[in-house]
Each structure stands twice: as structure tokens, then as C-alpha cells.
Records
---
Amino acid sequence: MKTDGIYLGASFALSGPVEKLDATRLPVRGDLAHIRLAGTVFVPHYVAPITYRSGAQGATLLKTPGGETLATLEPGAGFDVLDIAGTHAWGEVTGGGIVGYITLTQLEASV
């Protein structure tokens, strides 16, 4: 039963070691995760994404801000933003794709 956002009577237990998550395929970091992973991974915050689109020139998906290129997004490709810090957004390619960082100047608000 849920009361004011708190589940009463819910039981959670540690059931042994967890498998290492693929950080390039699952939107989870030590501080937050995509809301769809609630109940699957334990982090302090779960976030509902906001969908943006890559700009007219496309966008470069990076492993870390300023780091290795993971993929190049076509112009207009969807990117689900979960966190914005400094000059980069962290999230995943829309539809459960690759996870990484994109420079904010390469993104446009989705209509």
C-alpha cells in the first residue's frame, strides 16, 4: 500500500552480489538512475527524463564530458536527458540506447 509516496508493508532484502551494470547501456550512475530502473537498482535519486533533440548538425555522444566518442547522433535524433551539469547533459539515446554525455550546445528542446 502506498501512502504519501511511501510504500507501507514493502519488503526489500539483500539477496547476494549484484552483477556489474553496463554503464553504456543502462542509465544509472552512483547518484541517480532513470525512473524505469526503480526497484532494480539502488541509488539516492530516480529521474524521469526530458527528451531533447540533436541539433541541425547532429550531436556527439561522449563517454565522459570532453572524453571518448561513443556515437554520433543524426540531426533530430532523440536524447533523453537525466542530468545537466556545466556544459553537458547526461542521459541516453531515446528508446533505451547508448548512455553518455552531449554538449548542451548540440541539443534543442523537443517540441
---
Amino acid sequence: EQTAPGGQPQPVLSVAAVRAATRTHTAGIAGANRGLGWVLKGDRWDASGDWMGPRSYGHTGFTGTSLWVEPDLDLAVVLLTNRVYYGRSGSVGVLRAAVHNAITAAVRD
């Protein structure tokens, strides 16, 4: 959100743009569930963990950083890591899922 004159928050993107970006554009591709720039829940690279819902989406980076959004909980999780510090052979996939599970479980009803 951006703040307009008078202090009222305004969305950066329209509802239609968000819907277009977060719906699947990879129907018919085995193991893929991708939006426009986003990995969607159920994709083979889904890092959301076990507790985020079916409308969650995110993006991961090579060094282990990630941004994952769970719109039904009004939740966004940013994880900043440096998995290449000790070399390029490591993975932070398990760490991402564990962090997302812990945070999502903490805010769910």
C-alpha cells in the first residue's frame, strides 16, 4: 500500500492485477503452478510450508531469500538468508518451510 495525501492507504496494484498475477498460468504442465512472477501453492518449488492456504504465493531467490504471502491471513513473510556463505551446494528449502510453518501457526486462529 501507498499513503495518499491525507494519510489514506492506497493499494499499489489493482485487485484485477493481483488476481491475474496470482492465478495459475501453467495449467497442463506437470508439477507446475505458477502465476506471473509467483510460485503458487502446489507448485514443485512451493516453499509455503504446511499451514498456508491454497491462495498463498511467493518467490524465492538463489541465495535463500524468500517472500511468501498468505492473503487469507493478511500475512507476508520475508526470509533473508545467505545460503552461499559456506558454498553453493547447500539448500534452505527445509528452513523456509519451517519458518513459514512457525509464523503461520503463530497467527492462525
---
Amino acid sequence: MISGSVVLSYINCKREAWLMSRNIVPDQNNMYIEIGRFLHEDYNSGPNLPGMKVDMLFERDGVKVVGEVKKSSASIKGAELQLLYYLFRLEERGVKAKGEIIVPAENRRITVELTEEKREKIKKVIEEISLLIKEDLPPLPERKGICRKCGYELFCFS
């Protein structure tokens, strides 16, 4: 199943996205996973829908806003696509909303809207992920700078 987390992972590492889609759990003692879990627990007030663990859902000026909390802006591109995925899936259910990436440590809020161009972009990413997760084997590991913070590092490089 494609989830928002798989969409986020796909941008950083296709192997990680494949592993997540198979429910292969990363090292839960990884410091960065623990920080993410803490942030999610601290800010989580949103509903959990199939494939979506929305961090926050609130209303501002009569408009529904989906908030996605991140510990840093290091992966804003992935966070934006994750949020676009949520907005796209909500729109399919008849819910019109805007999005906001919230980075508390940097005191940043980045607005995300599902425009026609971005709708096409997220549809293309969903198609690519669908093809990837149909594969019998994951992509080969490829050492990147983000690997040292990844909960799958030992899995990939041991």
C-alpha cells in the first residue's frame, strides 16, 4: 500500500520506499526515528485514514488545513510531496483542503496547495511508486549522505 511515509521515502531513497511498502520496519532505536516519533506524538491531532497519518488537521478562515510537522527542512521536497499526497487523497474523498509544512525548530510554516500542476505531479509519483512496489526485489542499496541517519542503514550495508 502506498502511504504518505512511502511517498516521502520515495523522494529520498527508492529502496527505503520499497522496504516500507513491505512493512519491513527500520531500526526503532535509531535516534532520528525516535525524534520523528516524538514529534509525531507531540503534535498528532489529526485523523488516521487509510495510508495517511495526518499530523494535524485544523481550520483557518473557514478552510481546512492539513499540517505536516517535520524536525527540519532538510527534506522539504519530500515533505511537500507527502502533503500533496494527503491533499490528493482527501480531495478524492470530497474534502478540499490546503496544506502546511510546519518546522517548529526553525519557526517555519510552508504553505502547500494542490494546484492542477501539482496534482499531475503527485499522480505521476503515485504511478512511479506503484511500479516500484510491484517489483519482487528492492532496488540495490546506493550509499548517499542521508544513509547515515536512516533506520535502514544496517539493513542495506551490513
---
Amino acid sequence: AGWSAFVNMLEYKAVKHGRYFGKIGRFEPTSQICSVCGIKDGPKPLHVRQWTCAGCGTVHDRDDNASRNTLAAGRADRLNASRSAGKTRTKVPAQRVEAGSHPDGHPTVAGIPGLQAGEHVKR
């Protein structure tokens, strides 16, 4: 629950400040895929810290290879997100101090629409 709350806060703050937040699947095999040629070498026990790609012969540090694959997946996701900009992006409402006036000249009213001054919301 704590990790989920942390990720939700990161997502919200990224949107609020106009930044991109990407995440990849929990079971993405980032340490099993060669970051050079893309061949999936298969699962390895955690004590295996280095491995050699059967496809291209590159020697990989397990964590470094996983970080390169994670970065590549995030960049690919961001590229896809920018192509559909406006369709899936979440809009963040302006803060009250940033609210301006309506184009027709009526002032912006802060608060909950439909409530008159002095009314209270029942909980």
C-alpha cells in the first residue's frame, strides 16, 4: 500500500508540474533481455550478477543491463504518449490564485458550483 501511494503521488506531482511520468510493468524481464541486440536470454538466479549474451556476445552486469532496458522502455512509452498528446493526458485545474476571468467578462467565482454563500456541504 505504501509503494502504491508513493507512485500515485509521483504521478500527480508530475502532471501538476507539466512533467512526464512513465512506469513499466512489474514483471517486465529487464534483466533477461540484452540491451544491445534485444535477445531474451531467459531467467537467471539472483546470484548470477554477470552474463554473456548468446546472440551478440556482450558481457552484461545484471543491474546495469536492467537499468538500460528500463530507460529504453520509458523512452518508448514517452514517445508513444507524445504522439497521442491531448487524448490521454490528464488536465489539472488551475489553482485559485491562478484563476482568471471568463472571456465574456464575467469574473471567475471560486468555490463549489451550485452552493450559495453560507450553505454547508453535508457529509
